[in-house]
Amino acid sequence: MAVILLSTILTAVKAGVALIGAGKIAVLPFLIAAMTYFHYDQFDPENRPVDRAEVDNLYDFIIIGAGSAGSVLANRLTEIPNWKVLLLEAGGHETEITDVPILSLYLHKSKVDWGYKRDFDRWADYGNEGWSYDDVLPYFKKSQDQRNPYLAKNTKYHAT
């Protein structure tokens, strides 16, 4: 993998020097960034999750949904070494845009937006006491460490 990457970089550098001259070698970081971007999934340390044809027969906990609550819950439960936790997620693979928080507005009403806006209040309306938005908000805040001073001032929705 490293040999292929190195030869690709050298080829790109040679092509860049041939096209724009040796004095314009400053474009090299942009070439490397572009190559990394277009082969992002190969270099991503988190890479793609492994789909398993078979799962174990027995788990201590099965969590449906790896959203903001499911991920935190699974992480906390796996702190106990003897517990086996299965986390199931229906969503597809992430894109480069999903890794950049400031681009999250581009994801609204896209295929990665599940449209969960008033679910917590609806669950409470169905008789699930303690599941309203106001009831679960303290737990979301507990899992957050908002270091943006502007957002951290809003203590109703953010915590540090």
From TrEMBL:
User: Keyword Signal on this protein?
Assistant: yes
Keywords associated with the record: Signal
Q: Which residues form a coiled coil?
A: none
- The protein's name in its UniProt record: Glucose-methanol-choline oxidoreductase N-terminal domain-containing protein
Task: Report the source organism.
Answer: Rhamnusium bicolor
What GO MF annotations does this protein's record show?
A: flavin adenine dinucleotide binding; oxidoreductase activity
InterPro entries, alphabetically? Answer: FAD/NAD-bd_sf, GMC_OxRdtase
Signal peptide limits: 1-15
Q: List, alphabetically, the Gene3D superfamilies matched.
A: FAD/NAD(P)-binding domain (3.50.50.60), Glucose Oxidase, domain 3 (3.30.560.10)
Q: What family does this belong to?
A: Belongs to the GMC oxidoreductase family.
